[in-house]
Write a structure and sequence with these properties.
The complex is a heterodimer. Chain A is 46% helix and 7% strand. Chain A is α/β, with parallel strands linked by helices. Chain A folds into three domains: 9-99, no CATH class; 110-247, Rossmann fold (3-Layer(aba) Sandwich), CATH 3.40.50.1860; 254-372, Rossmann fold (3-Layer(aba) Sandwich). In chain A, helix 1 (9-19) crosses helix 3 (42-53), helix 6 runs parallel beside helix 11 and helix 8 (149-155) packs across helix 9. The longest helix of chain A has 18 residues, at 193-210. Chain B is of the alpha+beta class. Chain B has four domains: 5-102, 2-Layer Sandwich (Uridine Diphospho-n-acetylenolpyruvylglucosamine Reductase, domain 2); 109-227, Uridine Diphospho-n-acetylenolpyruvylglucosamine Reductase, domain 3; 231-329, Alpha-Beta Plaits (2-Layer Sandwich); 337-433, 2-Layer Sandwich (GMP Synthetase, Chain A, domain 3), CATH 3.30.300. Helix content of chain B is 36%, strand content 22%. In chain B, the strands form four sheets. Chain B has a seven-stranded antiparallel beta sheet, with helices on both faces. Classes of the chains: A alpha/beta, B alpha+beta. At the A-B interface, helix 1, helix 3 and helix 4 of A face helix 2, helix 5 and helix 14 of B.
């Protein structure tokens, strides 16, 4: 194990504040609600870090479980007056745990998977483009890159294909990397910073070789990571990064869309909403669809409830992840929505996996717009 | 570490493997509530010497609780019911270890609109119930500061009151029926027909409201609901003295007017809460709110006018509605951790006491005199009013720090509490209005109740819980 490093005074203060709180956010923490356990609350997670930091109590199975069960959705921060930023605290704690050499394989193996497969899903890297190769052909010279991400490439193929088709229909030129690796988000969220940096370095090096200036992605996690985390790690990061919503919102007018006279609700992905503050663009886009009835769930925008799959929780705490997702689907069902629309392949994949009511359909926003766009 | 493998196996057979833990991290998580002394002690190495539960179980049915209590009775193991862990008196601290039962998986809500009541299981958080009711156009009218984290079972167990109690009442005014698992495992209802009143002997709701888990575990409550108000109007007044403010409140109550919020602040806390620098030493600041409906808008306006006239007659200055609105909006802010206070090792707590109008001012000065010192500052406000009197919050703020060698802060904190409670009893007050008893106040219960009634309390306890398994050391038992 490497030598123990102390957190800065500022981080220690935020941890102290969280761990001594009167539990003001507990009614909103998705894992606290889903598990009914004190151990899966922000303040106990912070307490576990504080106790280790003060060398009162070293990490053990229970405290690691508490820390690694955080969805890093940061919903608690929307209800935190001093804004301790629990997501940041948990990411720091996880990184320090991984760095110190503690075996966390029981809670996350994302680091080794990203190193070995260049994706957290253990899918063959050489097959990354297989599902959409027919749409892009062999050409591809552009300064604009469509970064499809691991979920788009391997699981939510419909989103990848819809993104490509949509950009084609809008006459936006783009290229797709021959050798795209994971953006690094799952590794950052779970504390595997070496692996995150390795994958970031690879991607940026490829982009530079190809003369890329602009990056568009349909994945909220990729978007946040590339736009927000890459510049912190890579000194001369100079790319214009946009979520595909932002690109198409400026390109699509109401007259170009077929009507969709159904009740639709929009799920704010945590990375896009609280992570990047993008709340209006998806709603503006949806409201351009003729005759759409856009409804808000009980929790939306800054207070939007997590889908339950973030922070490595889907892979490592499947029951907890499922319960959180079902709570969100309940919200959509309570307002009688016919469609739940997200802007993140992982959210959609998770909801689809849980969905058992036929009256609520799950789609990504690019799929819906691709279906409705009149060419 | 498992204390007793056989007990563990039996508990596991009742709740299932996923619903039991003996991990130290979980036991630490369940060793404290929002008791300020405990929170402070949890920042120190002494955390590992704190009493912790031996087993945590999450129950999914009332039958599981019944079976656990039968087991605990047979084995004479302490049982501590745990809701939101929001209490401020250490009510869920497992003083002698045992089984902590987390009730939060009991979260069924059933609305009976036609008779204005709701059935709500003990594990539902107050805020979740209020959200549910609000979407249906109703309110419980129970908004304690802990609303986001306290549970329905906790409301009942601690005999809680919320910020709107002067109009909507406290929890005892809201309960129609309780489902309780007695220490022997028997499941009973205190008013199975859920009728609003009956003359069939004593009201058994009262036996369990405020019993802090010492007589059994409340698992379900039938609660009265009210229509959610369309209008909440605020008013604020600055009085020349504390007595003038109290006199105006009494006058308002005598007329049968029931503002939903009545909060009177002495100068020190008033300056802090309302950010008004020039509240002078003897002055007091009153916030009132009036709830009503679109159909009764004129009634609200008329009540507000009468109250304004009363306050002006007592020499008050009309401060408008802004202070009250801001207070209501920000009322929970003071419960968040304050970075400066953490850096400075500030320890603060509140002692909620209650007395009659004729004694409210006297009690403040007597308790303040007893508690304050160079290291302890006192401020206060008065809220939760009745025609006969009201409650007083004494807030003490101290600068002291515990170390491994020296428990200076803990000692000063406990000494301040003892002095306050002693002064309260010696001066005609009652030691708790709505925070309950928990650990510290237990030592004063005999004096509070008088020996005859205290013996009766102990007798009831002995009858219901002969093995003393239920939350030992609380309620002075």
């Amino acid at each position: 194990m490497s030598e123990k490093k102390q957190f800065s005074r500022e981080i220690r203060l935020r941890l102290e504040m969280c761990s001594t709180c009167m539990k003001m956010c507990r009614d909103n923490c998705p894992t606290a609600i889903a598990s009914s356990s004190e151990s899966f609350t922000p303040y106990i997670r912070s307490l576990n870090v504080v106790l280790n930091e003060k060398e009162i109590r070293t990490y053990d199975e229970g405290s690691l479980e508490s820390i690694f069960s955080c969805l890093t959705c940061n919903l608690c921060n929307s209800f935190c007056l001093p804004k301790v930023d629990e997501e940041d605290l948990m990411k720091l704690a996880r990184a320090s745990i991984v760095e110190s050499g503690i075996d966390v394989s029981k809670y996350s193996r994302i680091g080794e998977r990203i190193s070995e497969y260049h994706n957290p899903l253990q899918e063959a890297h050489q097959k990354r483009r297989d599902s959409f190769q027919d749409l892009i052909g062999e050409k591809n010279e552009s300064e604009t890159l469509l970064f499809l991400g691991c979920m788009g490439s391997y699981r939510e193929i419909e989103i990848a294909r819809a993104s490509i088709e949509l950009l084609h229909k809008l006459n936006i030129e783009f290229t797709i990397m021959q050798d795209e690796w994971c953006c690094g988000s799952p590794a950052i969220q779970t504390g595997f910073l070496d692996q995150a940096h390795e994958t970031m370095n690879h991607n940026v090096s490829e982009w530079k070789k190809r003369g890329i200036k602009q990056i568009i992605t349909p994945c909220s996690a990729c978007y946040r990571t590339i736009k927000s985390s890459y510049p912190k790690h890579i000194a001369d990061f100079n790319f214009n990064v946009q979520h595909i919503i932002e690109v198409i919102n400026s390109q699509i007018a109401m007259a170009q869309l077929n009507e969709f006279p159904l009740k639709v609700t929009y799920h704010d992905p945590c990375h896009l909403g609280r992570g990047m503050g993008v709340y209006d663009a998806p709603r503006e886009l949806l409201n351009k669809i003729p005759h759409i009835s856009l409804l808000e769930m009980d929790h939306s925008r800054e207070e939007g409830f997590c889908c339950g799959s973030g922070g490595g929780v889907r892979a490592n705490f499947p029951d907890l992840s499922k319960t959180v997702g079902l709570l969100r689907l309940d919200e959509a069902n309570r307002i009688n929505a016919e469609y739940l629309i997200s802007a993140c392949p992982l959210c959609k994949y998770h909801f689809k996996d849980l969905q058992n009511a036929e009256n609520l359909k799950i789609l990504d926003i690019v799929e819906l717009l691709n279906q409705l766009l009149i060419v | 570490m498992i204390k007793d493998e056989n007990v563990y196996k039996e508990l596991e057979s009742i709740v299932g493997q996923k619903n039991i833990s003996t991990k130290e991290a979980d036991r630490i998580a369940y060793g404290r509530d929002a008791f300020p002394l405990k929170i402070m002690q949890y920042r120190l190495p002494s955390i590992l010497k704190q009493p912790l539960p031996d087993y945590i179980v999450w129950v999914e049915s009332v039958d599981q609780i019944s079976n656990i209590l039968k087991l605990a009775n047979e084995r004479k193991i302490p049982v501590i019911p745990y809701g939101g862990g929001a209490g401020v008196n250490g009510g869920i601290v497992p003083l002698t270890g045992g089984i902590t039962i987390d009730l939060k998986k009991l979260k069924r809500i059933e609305l009976h609109e036609e008779s204005n009541y709701i059935l709500c299981q003990a594990g539902v958080l107050g805020q979740h119930l209020e959200n549910f009711l609000n979407t249906k156009g109703y309110t419980l009218g129970h908004l304690p500061s802990s609303l986001t984290t306290s549970s329905i079972g906790g409301f009942v167990a601690t005999r809680s009151a919320g910020a709107l109690s002067s109009l909507y009442g406290s929890i005892e005014n809201m309960v129609l029926d309780l489902e309780v698992v007695l220490p022997n495992g028997q499941i009973v209802h205190t008013n199975p027909s859920r009728v609003p009143r009956k003359a069939t002997g004593p009201n058994f709701n009262e036996l369990f409201i405020g019993s802090e888990g010492t007589f059994g575990i409340v698992t379900d409550a039938c609660l009265k609901i009210k229509r959610n108000p369309d209008i909440r109007e605020f008013a604020g007044f600055l009085f020349p003295t504390l007595v003038a403010g109290l006199k105006a409140i009494r006058h308002i109550m005598n007329l049968g007017i029931r503002p939903s919020i009545i909060r009177l602040y002495e100068a020190v806390e008033g300056r802090m809460v309302y950010h008004i620098e020039d509240i002078e030493k003897d002055q007091s600041y009153l916030t009132l709110s009036f709830d009503g409906f679109n159909e009764t808008k004129e009634l609200i306006e008329y009540q507000k006018k009468i109250c304004t006239d009363i306050c002006l007659k007592e020499g008050a200055q009309d401060m408008g509605d802004e202070g009250g609105k801001i207070w209501f909006k920000n009322r929970l802010n003071m419960y968040y951790p304050n970075p400066d206070w953490i850096k400075m090792n500030v320890l603060a707590d509140t002692i909620d006491v209650v007395t009659t109008y004729d004694n409210l001012e006297n009690l403040f000065y007597k308790m303040k005199e007893a508690m304050q010192s160079k290291k302890v500052n006192i401020m206060a406000h008065w809220s939760h009013f009745y025609p006969e009197g009201g409650s007083m919050y004494l807030i003490f703020v101290m600068l002291e720090k515990d170390t491994e060698e020296d428990q200076k802060a803990s000692n000063l904190y406990q000494e301040t509490w003892r002095k306050g409670l002693k002064a309260c009893l010696e001066n005609g007050g009652s030691i708790s209005h709505h925070h309950g008893i928990g650990i510290f106040r237990g030592g004063f219960m005999e004096q509070e109740l008088g020996s005859g009634i205290y013996d009766l309390l102990k007798g009831i306890k002995a009858y219901l819980d002969p093995n003393g398994i239920m939350n030992p050391g609380k309620l002075g038992l």
